[in-house]
Amino acid sequence: MSKVYLKEQEYGKDRVRLAKVIRKEKWHEIIELTVRVLLDGEFETPYTKADNSMIVATDSIKNTIYILAKQLSCVENIEIFASEIGQHFITTYSHVHKATVSITKHKWTRMLIDGKFHDHSFLRDGDDVHDTKVVVSRKGIIIESGLKNLLVLKTTGSAFYGFLRDKCK
């Protein structure tokens, strides 16, 4: 009879929506994030022996994101926030060896009303988002970040020069 083993696994919580309003008297800032946390570690027994005693519940993962967002002042910087979330899971649970945290920051732009920026009104003026994927392990942290769906248009000043000139110019 062959031994049952788990070669690889990762589990967690996806599509955690988080909106944080930062109030500075009448002036508000809005941060909207979508967060995904995947945990990797010693999780063989739930799959091979139906023993869930080492599982961090997905609701606990979601609630941890909300609690850290309330406690930490770094939510606006998604690379740092993702690192903090990942660090939480690998330091709180010794059997979690790696946490992969992906965050999408949705864009909100302050509205201009009667020629003045409004204190607490915003609009979504494009599909571009700021994405990060942070892998936190006991060996270190790896961060990948960028922009997605950003459209740029220049109407002048974008000449291409210095290229090879031949008979086809």
UniProtKB/TrEMBL annotation:
The keyword Disulfide bond is annotated on this UniProt entry: no
Example of a GO biological process term: purine nucleobase catabolic process
First-level EC class: oxidoreductase
GO terms under cellular component: peroxisome
Pfam families: Uricase
Record-listed E.C. numbers: 1.7.3.3
Lineage of origin: Eukaryota, Fungi, Fungi incertae sedis, Mucoromycota, Glomeromycotina
Top-level taxonomic group: Eukaryota
Organism in which the protein naturally occurs: Gigaspora rosea
Alphabetic keyword roster: Oxidoreductase, Purine metabolism
Family per similarity comment: Belongs to the uricase family.
Transmembrane segments annotated in the record for this chain: none
GO terms, molecular function: urate oxidase activity
Name of the protein this chain belongs to: factor independent urate hydroxylase
Pathway: Purine metabolism; urate degradation; (S)-allantoin from urate: step 1/3
